[in-house]
Give the backbone structure.
Amino acid sequence: MSSRLTRDDVRALGFEILRGKPDPAVRVRLLRDVLCVEPGDERLRAAHVALDDSAHVARLREQQRADGSWGRLHSRDTAARQSIPTTEWAVERAVAIGIDAGHPVLDAVAAYLAGVVTGRLIPSDPPEKNDRWATGVTLFAAATLALIDSEHLALDPVWTLWHEITRRTFRSGAYDPDAEVAAHLDLTGASVRGTYLTIGNRYAVALLGSRADRMDLDVRAALFRWLWDHPKGLGYLNAPPAAAPARGAASGFIELWVWSHEILASLSTHAAAGPILDALEAYRRDDGLWDLGARASFTPVLPLSTTWRAKDSRAADWTTRILSLASRWMGGPSRA
């Protein structure tokens, strides 16, 4: 086994898992995100048809409401009798299993989220009694909408706002908390020092990364460096990107660390791919696959397979996720 995952490794492992006839979500993710087949490829079309008939998609359909949401946007309602806790969770789940924009489930929620972003709709979440909630709820909705359609027109003013906040925060070339506070007071009226609205939260980073090619290059680079070395990691995930979890670490922490890198990959110019690929290499099994343990119950990404009871289905799911991540850090392999 090589000391660092290569593009050829990614391609070979993708085909190896496909030969095992995995579940539809695995097939979609491998064909679309790892092997990068053309959208009209018959293999991908058949995988999408099978995915649409899966229990994963049925669960999303059954619990989606008439307005396109799954109830609350961001804050969980413990009294609600549903297995999908929030609308943002549902969208993250839909994207994780490979549902594409244009699917009725995502079309309906995209219209709902656009309404929240523009202020036409008010989510059912109990509003916080502070000066941050209006900015925060718009950010949550915008970051979630960007997962579906990063070019949606409703995102334009929100993305521009957060890019300007970031530009002012890193004007000196390094993170300046006082400049960030001043930017918010000027642009949003929110008091953010020491709160979830500081620029390192996962929603702001994901929103900015959805249009990373439009960011000022120096701002993008400064933000990435700061996030990479942040001792606490992205807000809400709290898994320092530069510190790979030790072997044997709790699977929940590993999950958050991988999720952090999935978000950061959009900001990278791929020069930083080496460290993450080295870290991922250390977790490979002797057969070249990954199995990083039981999924964290609070995240929407796994499982991809209908069940992990089948032999090696958990490894197929984790490996598909790792290969997708590695492909993003490498800049994407050539099409199959």
